[in-house]
Write a structure and sequence with these properties.
mainly alpha, 2 domains, 68% helix
């Protein structure tokens, strides 16, 4: 049997519609709207199962233990993540005086290069003589651990 062009057009349309929905859901969609949609879907499914006596909630103590474990685990996780982010950011942040002196040193070095070469130094040009990490050339005054 041959496939008509109208069948392939309908297939392509459904694939592109599904593809667009998938792209919106995974990439472009508002995360708050998606979270609300998932929560409402699960709530309605549970309500339907409870009303049909398939999954009645008769004893709430095990549910309480599970939820309290999830909440305390999330609090611990959030605390650890925030602490590690503070440690990482504190190594990158500098005082305004340090930043100003670094900018001045960079501008002076660029002027020196421009004077020697009689050309403007590219904007991405970085000083190899400035005091920074020797491995990745980041602005860290101490070894960044890279």
């Amino acid at each position: 049997m041959g496939v008509s062009s109208s069948d392939t057009d309908a297939d392509e349309h459904s694939r592109t519609t599904i593809g667009r929905l998938e792209q919106w859901l995974l990439l472009n969609g508002n995360r708050f709207v998606i979270a609300i949609g998932v929560a409402v879907t699960f709530g309605i499914a549970y309500l339907a199962l409870t009303m049909a006596n398939v999954a009645p909630l008769t004893e709430t103590q095990p549910l309480f233990y599970a939820l309290s474990g999830l909440v305390s685990g999330n609090m611990t996780l959030i605390t650890v993540v925030v602490s590690s982010n503070q440690l990482l950011l504190s190594r990158e942040l500098q005082t305004p005086d340090e930043l100003e002196s670094e900018i001045e040193a960079t501008v002076d070095y660029r002027r020196e290069v421009e004077a020697v070469t009689n050309r403007a130094a590219p904007s991405s040009f970085r000083s190899s003589s400035r005091s920074g990490c020797s491995r990745c050339r980041c602005s860290s005054r101490i070894s960044c651990g890279w």
